[in-house]
Structures are given as structure tokens and as C-alpha cells.
């Protein structure tokens, strides 16, 4: 592993997309409260603003479920395909914009498309010219390499753990992650590859307000407020929390088959934390490294024992099949399904009425 090796940032791409949008706001090319129908005239949803997309308060349904129902998985999908399916099938919105907050990959895909419509450049070109090049982020790109056969030497090799064989294998070889192949070229919500060093450069630029004015960044780092005057700890592209020792932290995490990423900026202490991994999430390692920021002592945990799946009877597995509702959040349904391969899968869908789930 080398310092300049690139990793898929997955959803850590979202704050970068948001920073790209904020530059357009700063240049007066768009406004945060512009209605997105200004750029997406055929989108069958109204009263959604750029701000709603940034804050996950748009109420737009998640495109991943839409593709699962209406897409040929042998064909790679694009951002334009996301827009086309939303327009063609018009799945019901989860709630009116601004009423609630539900994490939305769809919103950030539309932000990527919005950048392209406003600038007449590809999302990749715009991000490179507006952010990556000015900050000397030489190893950051918008690309797709998760499922290619041969990796360039600068890309971190990626694996997932197969509990059935007890081995680490390529995501494209693993049944549970193979289905995500066709989504690998969608950007905005993900799709950016970067390095520890480049994200450190970005963190420094944010702390020093190098490309963005302080007032705009303060807006991005302010917890959002819903129409009912209820606030939640997510700004415009950033999760927000207070650390007793290091102060206000703006951050994001991300995961894609074989990759895990965490990016944190502690604003008061001017501390930057970057954790990139080319396997599944390693929370114990991440927590140990973050603890070292406060103690100046790094104590790595023991390597966890890899578990291997055991065979269970179909009759036993069928006992877990069904829909589950949390008492605290009855609007969310969790459905457990037994697939023909005799494995249980969990599906989650938002249920606006808290009664039924399709």
C-alpha cells in the first residue's frame, strides 16, 4: 500500500459534489433556493430546490430500488438513465420537500447533472478544473474501476470477504455484490477516486477557506432545519457533530463493494482525519487511529477472526421471512426475503404511511 494509491470514496464523494455546487453558488451561476425544475423540466416533482438536494430533504425516492425494478442489469447505467427512469416511472415522493430528512443518493446524482447543465462540462471535467487542479489534487479523478479485470498500479486492489468460502475475492466474483456492477458509472453520490494525501489537501483548503468564502462554508456546516423547525445534524453535504476535545467536526463516510472511506475535518482544532480501506469496513482500526489523534498513541486492535457461514435448513430460514417495523420509526419497513440460493436478504423501503410497504 502506498500513500498515492487511489481508493473509491463512495459516498465521501457527496461532500465533494456539494463543494462543486457551492462554487457555482459563489459565482452566482445558481442559487441555493432555485427550483431544480429550472434544469429538469420533465422531472415529475415540484417545489424541490438545490438546497433540498444538498440536505437530503427533497423526498425523492432512491434510484437504486427504481433500477432494481426497471433496468437490464447487463447494461451499465448513467446519470441520464437515473433521470430518465424518474421521469418515465414517476415513483411517488417520500414526503413533501423540506418536511423530513431521508438520505438520498438520487439527490446527489441530480446535483451532478445540474453541474453539467449549468457549466456545459462533464461532471468529471468540472470537478477537475474547479477543485482538483487548483488544490493540486493530482491523484483525484471521477472514474470507475471497481469491476475492471486488471487494476492500474495506482488503484488500490479491492476485495470483499466471502463468508461462504472463507476467502477474500473480487466484488465481481461475489454473488451479493455482483448486482451492483451496472451502477458503477453513476456519479455525484459516488464515483470519485482519491488518496489520503489529496483528501488532506482538500481538508486544508476547507479549513482555510481557500476556494470558498467563509460565509458559504458556514452555511454548509450549519445543521439543517425542517419545515417543522426541527433541526438535524446534516448540513449541505456534511454530517456534523461536536467532539469534546477536537471541537466541531464535519464529516462523511462511504462504502462500496470492497471499499470503505471516512473523511473528517475538525474545524476548531484544524485536524483532518482520513481513513481509506480496500476491504469492507474496519471500524475497530478506524476508531483506534482516530483515538490516536487525541492521545498521540496508536494501539492497533488485534486482527479479527474471519467468520465462515454455516449451513442452515430452508425451514429454519423461512421463519425469518417477513416485514419488520421499528416502533421508534414505523415509517421504515425492513423486509427479509429468502432467495433461491437459500440465503436471506434484507431490503429496506420507506413507507410514508407507516402501514404498508411495496
TrEMBL record:
It comes from the Bacteria. It is found in: Membrane. PROSITE patterns: BETA_LACTAMASE_A. Transmembrane segments: none annotated. One of its GO terms (cellular component) is membrane. InterPro entries: AmpC-like, Beta-lactam-related, Beta-lactam/transpept-like, Beta-lactam_class-A_AS. It holds the Pfam family Beta-lactamase. Residues 4-284 form the Beta-lactamase-related domain. Its main location: membrane. The keyword Membrane applies. Keywords: Membrane. Gene3D superfamilies: DD-peptidase/beta-lactamase superfamily. This is Beta-lactamase. It comes from Bacillus cytotoxicus (strain DSM 22905 / CIP 110041 / 391-98 / NVH 391-98).
Amino acid at each position: 500500500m502506498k500513500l498515492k494509491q487511489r481508493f473509491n470514496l463512495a459516498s465521501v464523494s457527496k461532500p465533494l459534489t456539494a463543494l462543486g455546487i457551492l462554487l457555482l453558488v459563489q459565482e452566482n451561476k445558481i442559487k441555493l433556493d432555485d427550483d431544480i425544475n429550472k434544469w429538469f423540466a420533465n422531472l415529475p416533482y415540484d417545489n424541490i430546490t438545490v438546497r433540498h438536494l444538498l440536505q437530503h430533504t427533497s423526498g425523492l425516492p432512491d434510484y437504486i430500488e427504481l433500477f432494481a425494478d426497471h433496468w437490464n442489469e447487463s447494461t451499465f447505467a448513467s446519470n441520464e438513465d437515473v433521470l430518465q427512469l424518474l421521469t418515465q416511472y414517476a415513483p411517488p415522493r417520500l414526503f413533501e420537500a423540506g418536511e423530513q430528512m431521508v438520505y438520498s443518493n438520487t439527490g446527489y446524482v441530480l446535483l451532478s447533472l445540474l453541474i453539467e447543465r449549468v457549466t456545459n462540462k462533464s461532471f468529471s471535467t468540472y470537478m477537475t478544473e474547479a477543485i482538483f487542479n487548483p488544490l493540486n489534487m493530482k491523484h483525484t479523478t471521477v472514474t470507475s474501476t471497481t469491476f475492471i479485470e486488471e487494476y492500474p498500479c495506482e488503484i488500490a486492489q479491492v476485495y470483499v470477504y466471502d463468508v461462504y468460502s472463507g476467502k477474500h475475492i473480487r466484488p465481481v466474483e461475489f454473488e451479493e455484490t455482483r448486482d451492483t456492477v451496472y451502477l458503477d458509472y453513476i456519479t455525484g453520490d459516488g464515483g470519485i477516486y482519491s488518496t489520503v494525501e489529496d483528501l488532506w489537501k482538500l481538508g486544508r483548503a476547507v479549513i482555510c477557506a481557500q476556494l470558498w468564502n467563509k460565509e458559504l462554508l458556514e452555511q454548509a456546516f450549519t445543521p439543517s432545519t425542517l419545515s417543522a423547525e426541527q433541526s438535524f445534524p446534516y448540513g449541505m453535504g456534511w454530517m456534523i457533530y461536536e467532539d469534546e476535545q477536537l471541537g466541531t467536526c464535519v464529516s462523511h463516510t462511504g462504502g462500496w463493494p470492497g471499499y470503505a472511506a471516512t473523511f473528517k475535518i475538525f474545524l476548531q482544532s484544524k485536524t483532518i482525519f482520513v481513513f481509506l480501506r480496500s476491504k469492507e469496513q474496519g471500524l475497530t482500526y478506524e476508531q483506534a487511529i482516530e483515538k490516536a489523534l487525541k492521545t498521540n498513541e496508536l494501539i492497533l486492535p488485534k486482527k479479527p477472526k474471519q467468520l465462515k457461514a454455516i449451513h442452515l435448513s430452508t425451514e429454519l430460514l423461512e421463519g425469518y421471512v417477513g416485514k419488520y417495523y421499528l416502533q421508534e420509526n414505523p415509517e421504515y419497513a425492513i423486509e427479509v426475503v429468502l432467495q433461491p440460493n437459500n440465503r436471506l436478504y434484507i431490503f429496506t423501503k420507506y413507507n410514508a404511511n407507516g402501514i404498508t410497504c411495496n
